[in-house]
Structures are given as structure tokens and as C-alpha cells.
């Protein structure tokens, strides 16, 4: 099981720790470093900054949001950075949800998310393969554009720049069972949002079609500390925000996932409290058991025991959310 460093997205401003953390992860032998985006900083610019300071570690987006860019634009970002970094890019993509897609990007959330994702990946693959002009008569992504409001003058094109790698890995963030099953068919890997090594049966059926070499790369917050309850507070804060605030009361993929993992009643309670403006109560309502299952928190010996559970499942890459160099060193030593 390879280790990766997940840096997430910026908050109010850039973190001065991200480059030093990436350098330390590379020194420790971590396989990859990952950036993200929500509705603030983008994923590719910080990753390029890190690429310029490192030499070996792989560079991943977890995730770049599909609604933020056309698929050809995303492919251009990936192939450009792949050249500049010497072939180190791993392209992680995610559809996001209706609240973000329509509220931030000002675009309709696709009525058929599976089709939209499949078409997006198809176009990205065509650009990276560069076998001919990009052509797709898609429901959501047409190349050339054939809409009634177009000029009809669009021409199928292939990229001027020759991609460094036609097989640049494409991973997808997916939560629903059908979405995960499609990911196993069309992508090189899957980026689970929550992963419990104690509940791998939740995903078994969806991963049946996964080919050999398919990557399973969940994120987990890690912290070496004596007080487990205190160490879990950032995990619970994250869960409270995602389950309560990253979606509508009637359509929240994160709350639905927590429900499928056996915490349906607790997820709805967190959502109710958050949407009522009682955010601190929402965070405290996140079950310690759930937060603990999806993270690696506690003394070194406890983390060592729990790390064994992660190794026994299908996880190929464990992406650690940890702004603490000491924790990164301990995990490198234990792995």
C-alpha cells in the first residue's frame, strides 16, 4: 500500500506549509501528493508550484471539478503539467453536487450524472491519446458543438501538443454504487471520499468489474496524538461540513453515503442541525465511531494496529490528510 499526501484546497489564503510538506513527503518516500478545489483556489496551480520544487513524487488532483472546465480544457491542463513535471501527473476528477455546480459554476447539474461523467472521460482520453480529432456526439459534451445556438462552423481538432503519456492515469471521485461501478469500468482508479476498512463490503459489488491494477485511493486524516477524542475533532468538523453543508437537504450525496455505511439516522441528525444554523452541535453529533473508522488518529501503537486493517482490503494508495511532519514520518516508518 503506497502512501500519498493530500493537501486539500486553500482556506482563506495559501498555506505556507504545503511546499515544505510536499518536500518532506518526497524525502520520506511518499508516492504522491494531491491538491483539491472547491469554490476558491484551483487544483492545478498549486500542483504546478509543487511540481517545480520536487523531482520524483507523483502529482494528483483529488479532485478537479468537471463543472469548472470543459473536458478538453482539463486535458490541456493535465498534458501541460505532465510535460513540465516529467510524467508525474495523476488526473483525479469529480462531478461535485447540484449546490456547487449550479451555485458556483452557474451551470445545470446534469440530469444523468453517469452519462455526463462517461462523456467527460471519453473526451479527456481522446485528447491524451491524440489518435485523431476529438469527436463525440454526446448528450452533455459535443465535439464539435452542434447545438441550435451554435454557428455550425465548429471543426473537429486534435491537440497541437503531443501528450507525453497517452495513458496518463485518470481517477474519479464517486460515491453512489452505480457511479463507483462505472468508475471501475472507465477509469484507472477511484478516489473514495470516506473509506472504512471495517466496512469494505459496502463497495464489493460496485468494484467487481475493476481490472487488475485498478487504483483505490481513499483519503484519511492522520494524527499521532495521545488524546484520541481531541484528535478526532478536525475529522468531525470536516464531516459536519460535508454532511450538513455540502448539499441540499433533499439531495446530499455525502449524507447518503454515510447512511449506506450504517449511520443513516446520525447523518440526518447532523444535516438537520447544520441546516438549522447549529453548526457546533452538528459537529458534536457526528459519531466518534464513524470519524474514527475513516481516519488514523491516536498514539503510534494504535495507528500501527489500525493501519493493518487498511492493508488487508483493496486499498492501493492511502492519501493522508496531515499537516503534521511528525505524523508523516511515523506513517512512513510504519508502512
TrEMBL record:
Could you tell me which Pfam families the record lists for this protein? Bac_luciferase (PF00296)
- Keyword tags: Oxidoreductase
Q: Which is one GO molecular function term here? A: oxidoreductase activity, acting on paired donors, with incorporation or reduction of molecular oxygen
Stated name of the protein: LLM class F420-dependent oxidoreductase
Q: Which domain of life is it from?
A: Bacteria
Residue ranges constituting the Luciferase-like domain according to the UniProt record: 16-315
Q: Which residues form a coiled coil?
A: none
Amino acid at each position: 500500500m503506497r502512501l500519498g499526501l493530500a493537501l486539500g484546497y486553500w482556506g482563506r489564503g495559501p498555506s505556507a506549509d504545503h511546499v515544505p510538506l510536499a518536500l518532506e513527503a518526497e524525502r520520506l518516500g511518499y508516492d504522491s501528493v494531491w491538491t483539491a478545489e472547491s469554490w476558491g483556489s484551483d487544483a492545478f496551480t498549486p500542483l504546478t508550484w509543487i511540481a517545480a520544487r520536487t523531482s520524483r513524487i507523483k502529482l494528483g488532483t483529488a479532485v478537479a471539478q468537471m463543472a469548472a472546465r470543459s473536458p478538453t480544457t482539463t486535458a490541456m491542463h493535465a498534458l501541460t503539467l505532465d510535460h513540465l513535471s516529467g510524467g508525474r501527473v495523476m488526473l483525479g476528477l469529480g462531478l461535485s453536487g447540484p449546490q456547487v455546480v449550479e451555485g458556483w459554476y452557474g451551470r445545470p447539474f446534469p440530469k444523468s450524472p453517469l452519462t455526463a461523467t462517461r462523456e467527460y472521460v471519453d473526451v479527456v482520453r481522446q485528447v491524451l491519446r491524440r489518435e485523431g480529432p476529438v469527436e463525440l456526439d454526446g448528450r452533455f459534451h459535443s465535439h464539435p458543438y452542434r447545438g441550435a445556438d451554435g454557428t455550425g462552423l465548429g471543426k473537429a481538432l486534435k491537440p497541437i501538443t503531443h501528450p507525453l503519456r497517452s495513458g496518463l492515469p485518470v481517477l474519479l471521485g464517486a460515491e453512489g454504487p452505480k457511479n463507483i461501478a462505472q468508475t471501475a469500468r472507465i477509469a484507472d482508479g477511484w478516489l473514495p471520499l470516506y473509506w472504512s476498512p471495517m466496512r469494505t463490503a459496502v463497495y464489493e459489488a460496485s468494484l467487481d468489474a475493476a481490472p487488475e491494477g485498478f487504483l483505490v485511493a481513499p483519503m484519511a486524516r492522520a494524527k499521532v496524538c495521545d488524546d484520541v477524542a481531541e484528535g478526532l475533532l478536525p475529522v468531525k468538523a470536516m464531516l459536519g461540513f460535508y454532511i450538513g453543508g455540502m448539499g441540499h437537504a433533499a439531495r446530499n450525496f455525502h449524507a447518503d453515503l454515510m447512511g449506506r455505511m450504517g449511520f443513516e439516522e446520525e447523518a440526518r441528525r447532523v444535516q438537520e442541525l447544520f441546516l438549522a444554523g447549529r453548526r457546533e452541535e452538528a459537529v458534536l453529533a457526528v459519531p466518534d465511531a464513524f470519524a474514527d473508522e475513516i481516519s488514523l488518529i491516536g498514539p503510534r501503537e494504535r495507528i500501527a494496529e489500525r493501519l493493518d486493517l487498511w492493508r488487508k482490503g483493496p486499498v492501493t494508495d492511502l492519501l493522508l490528510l496531515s499537516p503534521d511532519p511528525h505524523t508523516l514520518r511515523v506513517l512512513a516508518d510504519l508502512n
